[in-house]
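Need tokens for this chain, all 199 residues.
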Amino acid sequence: MRPFREHTGIVAPLDRTNVDTDQIIPKQFLKRIERTGYGEFLFWDWRRDGDGKARPEFVLNRDEYAGASILVAGRNFGCGSSREHAAWALVDYGFRAIIAPSFADIFSTNAAINGLLLITLPDGDVQRLLSRAQKHPGYKLHVSLVTKTVSDDQGFLSSFSIDEFRRTCLLGGLDEIGLTLKHETDIAAYEAKLGQRGW
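Here are the structure tokens for all 199 residues:
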């Protein structure tokens, strides 16, 4: 998993509440078993019309937000089904962090184990960021997981809280497999001992 420590990126404003995983990555694209290749299908029904043509008004189809790596959205982001593909699609598209007033629990877990930082900020701060990103395309934020802060060059500064175990994993780029492999020597020694006993 790619570690997350500090990141500065363009902000894409998605001023919608209750963005569910079925909209993040629709069911017809869940046929792959790899974690890659989902980015092009992110928000498909919002980005494309019935003929598959890009909807020019949708934020991710606008040239001003090309290359955005921070998404700011409304309350209850990631609700709906538990599909981990939603996190895969966001990461594959290029997002490193999502800022919202609240997130669905299962989505929060899926995001963390895929290196996607979720930042919960008060409604007022989120509305301020949405407004700045809408009025000033190309608007950038700096996110520090080291200091647990979000800031810009216009004086905005806000702190956020995060579970320390989740923070440690993100800082070190450790998913469940990575955490297990940190104890590889102990595991090998234990298995060798079992082998000597004939188990």
